[in-house]
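Exercise 7.
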Amino acid sequence: MFLSVDAGNSNIVFGIYEESSDSWLNVLRVETTKKLSVLQLEKALGLFFLENGLHPDSIDGIGLSTVVPDLKTILLRCTENFFGRMPYLINEKSYDKLLVKTTNPEEIGSDLMANITAAYDCFKEACIVVDFGTALTFSIIDSQGNVIGINIVPGIKTAINSLFTGTARLPKVSLEMPDSVLGKNTVQAIQAGIFYGYTGLVKGMLASIAAETQMKFKVLATGGLSPVMQHLSAEFDLMDIHLTLRGIYQITRINCKKD
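Solution. The predicted structure, written as tokens, is:
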């Protein structure tokens, strides 16, 4: 089995992939906090493995993607302590052997490159990956696997939190799609503004990309908040919450393959 680790600004996601069944057996999410320690992560992993009847020795490969520099040392130490091995750390040199190509490997996040890798591997044609995470990102790939653009917007949860922290009287609301675009109270008003607003944003962005490029794309959705946007499913050819984890697995296996 293989362990993909996706360390983002909101969560660190540990996903266990069984190659024989091509399935993600178990997934652990740990909230990213400034006080997170190696010991805390080891305890969380220990409980996770115990609850799922797994042993660290069953993991024969580990791939790590992090867009949070402060987490790198913590995660490297944690995986070495818990699994007795170092993970493959995805970096700008990891993309040389991939079918997909980017002209800015130092700038594009390893999580986005994981998305792009998995998406292109899935369809082998022009794709747009919409990632509903801390940021809402659109990664655009042409039919040859070239990354031709990235768009970044504040994510849904980020937008809701900004209203809560940046205003005196607006409450923090749950991540739920309201029944109506017409809010009847403050909570419904915020939910309607955010969710229907982001629905229009996603549709408008996809339309603008298609209009400018004059290309037809396969459109994929991923990210921790993608399940709350199920009403947009008609816009996507594939919704896969594990897309980033799959890309981490693919990049690691390609780079660690013995020639």
